Amino acid sequence: MTMNAAELIDHVLYPECLDHLADDVEWVLPVSVGGTHKGKVAVLEMLDGVMTQFYDPTTISADVITAFGTENFATMVFVMSATTRWGQAYRNQYSITIQTAEGKITRVYELCDTKNLFDTMDIPGTMRA
């Protein structure tokens, strides 16, 4: 059975989302944290890099605040908690909106508090608000 966006939103978090991405998926991040990644290969590289370079993957958890959607669009708001590779506690609110077609995620719009991200990660060379 093919899932629609309202059903796929429950599978949008990493690494579960990897099984549901279309080959031509676009993942749109704020420009200050990477901008748009086009195509499944580019998205997989971005996600793998982010989730393993900055966080201890075994510590990542998400507390869903709300999730809702229609057949083609859905949104999830959640708080992600993790321990950074530097041992710091990380906690940030995220909003992810997906667009789907033929049971696959075709576009992802991801937003978070980038100042919180930069401050916690202390990433050199990044834009700070």
Mean pLDDT across the residues is 90
Work out the helix count: 3
Strand content: 35-45%
Low-pLDDT residue spans: 125-129
Main sheet?
6 strands, mixed
Number of strands: 6
Strand order of the largest sheet: 2-1-6-5-4-3
CA-atom Rg in angstroms = 14 Å
Overall shape? globular
Distance between the termini: 45 Å
List SSEs in N-to-C order: HEEHEEEEH
Question: Level of helix content?
Answer: 10-25%
* Helix/sheet category: alpha+beta
Describe the protein's topology.
Elements: H1 5-8, E1 21-28, E2 36-38, H2 40-53, E3 61-69, E4 73-83, E5 89-101, E6 104-112, H3 114-121
Parallel strand pairs: 1-6
Antiparallel strand pairs: 1-2, 3-4, 4-5, 5-6
Protein traits:
single chain, 129 residues, six-stranded mixed β-sheet, 3 helices, 20% helix, 41% strand
Walk me through what this model shows:
This protein is α+β, with helices and mostly antiparallel strands and 129 residues long. It has three helices and six strands, in the order H-E-E-H-E-E-E-E-H. Residues 125-129 have low confidence and may be disordered.
Task: Summarize it.
The chain is α+β, with helices and mostly antiparallel strands and 129 residues long. Helices cover 20% and strands 41% of the residues.
